[in-house]
Write a structure and sequence with these properties.
With 399 residues, the protein is α/β, with parallel strands linked by helices. It is built from 15 helices and 14 strands. The structure holds adenosine-5'-diphosphate. Adenosine-5'-diphosphate is lined by residues 205-207, 234, 278-280, 283, 325-327, 330-331.
């Protein structure tokens, strides 16, 4: 079975073509950046070949999809008919979750939540519509980021606002990064050699979240109705006092648009440091003594540490902590600071192993009760496997 997984960003399109035969093989993969700008960048790689890189205008997703299609047809796909489906890691559609055929009903449910996922839902909907046009005969299957968190208990997902308001507008904690937390949970189980354990999965990328996982099931996570909460993100604020926007609007004349832009684009690591939304730049500025950058890094790690403590309390202990995502996999500084002083919880790491960590690997310190891992997350394979299972079930039901 051949499944093409597409990851749509606001200006990017990443793709990977899987072949599920006797093994799970990647036939081709590629990445387009700066879609919509005057000059875009495209890199494409077929299995066992060198990557081809080009600079060219990619004015919209439809152009990007056609370029990807022609590259796949050169070596990796005989015909578009060989493709069983295109699978997407879609973000938010209220209570429509799990794995879904991306039809009009599901696209409308996504559009109804554009306000709470402004950087994610609109580009996905636009791209999916263009896939429908360019590949009208290929099923499009979405695996929702909220799916892994669907079994959280009410005390974890309800907000302390009037219950009738929560019910009327479907306001609750949904949680995101489900594909990554699920991959990390499964991979950690392999590394632990068991499935019955309490895990804190730390997905730390441009956007980050932590998840408390008991025996493979998410029982709590720190993204909520939207992706604007939890720990700070690259340019989004994370948890702040909900009265900050009201204070700025009522007393200082900020408009709703200004608040939205501030919280969604100008906050987090970028806003606090005043340097960059990329942790590498902020770490460098901190090393050079920039006080705001030092505070941003310290605050970021402190927020992760507090969340780890909260989830250890929620689960009644912790057996494993796994780090993933661009920051979780690469920043030894963040891992070290986030776990510093947690010996009382039975958590410590080997500093040498932390500094030289290459995922997948273990950092557990000598006297640590809990084991600590760095895992190279693989959201695409989770999405592809779910799409495969969905198609197999659909075929069986049709027989
Ligand atoms: P996204 O959430 O956009 O998918 P990634 O998971 O790829 O992002 O993570 C991107 C982030 O990873 C970048 O913003 C950068 O801050 C961080 N990062 C990547 N490499 C390093 C590194 N060596 N040290 C510190 N941070 C890093």
């Amino acid at each position: 079975m051949k499944i093409l997984v597409c990851n749509v960003g606001s200006t990017s399109l990443k793709y990977r073509l899987f072949d599920f035969g006797s093994s799970e093989e990647t036939l081709a993969e590629g990445k387009m950046e700066r879609v919509g700008a005057e000059t875009g960048a495209w890199s494409h790689k077929d299995a066992n070949e060198a990557a081809e890189k080009q600079t060219l205008p990619i004015p919209d997703y439809a152009t990007g999809i056609r370029l990807m299609q022609s590259a796949l047809l050169k070596k990796s796909l005989g015909s578009m008919k060989d493709l069983d489906c295109v699978a997407f890691k879609v973000v938010h559609a209220k209570d429509v979750t799990g794995v879904q055929l991306l039809d009009e009903r599901v696209l409308s449910a996504m559009a109804a939540f554009n306000t709470v996922a402004p950087s994610h839902n609109p580009p996905y909907i636009a791209a999916i519509r263009q896939f429908q046009e360019v590949l009208p005969d290929t099923p499009l299957v979405g695996s929702f980021e909220t799916g892994f968190h669907a079994n959280m208990p009410p005390e974890a997902y309800l907000y302390s606002i009037p219950i009738d308001v929560s019910r009327k507008y479907a306001i609750r904690r949904y949680g995101f990064h489900g594909a990554s937390h699920e991959y990390v949970s499964d991979r950690t189980a392999e590394l632990m050699g068991r499935k019955d354990f309490k895990l804190i999965s730390c997905h730390l990328g441009g956007s980050g979240s932590l998840c408390a996982v008991v025996n493979g099931v998410s029982i709590d996570t720190n993204l909520g109705l939207s992706l604007q909460c939890g720990i700070m993100h690259n340019n989004r604020c994370g948890d702040i006092d909900p009265y900050i926007p009201i204070f700025l609007m009522k007393d200082f004349g900020y408009s709703l648009e200004q608040i939205e832009t501030m919280l969604n684009k100008q906050s987090g690591l970028l806003g606090m440091s005043g340097v960059s939304n990329d942790l590498r730049d902020v770490e460098l500025a901190a090393e050079q003594g920039n006080e705001d950058a030092i505070n941003a890094v310290e605050s970021y790690c402190y927020q992760i540490k507090k969340q780890i403590g909260a989830y250890a309390a929620a689960m009644g202990g912790v057996d494993a902590i796994s780090f993933a995502g661009g920051i979780g996999e690469n920043s030894s500084l963040v891992r070290q600071k986030a776990l510093d002083g947690l010996e009382f919880l039975g958590v410590s790491i080997d500093q040498q192993k932390n500094e030289t960590a290459k995922p997948d690997c273990e950092l557990t310190g000598k006297n640590s009760r809990a084991r600590v891992f760095v895992v190279a997350t693989n959201e695409e394979i989770v999405v592809a496997r779910k799409a495969k299972e969905y198609l197999e079930n659909r075929r069986q039901a049709a027989q």
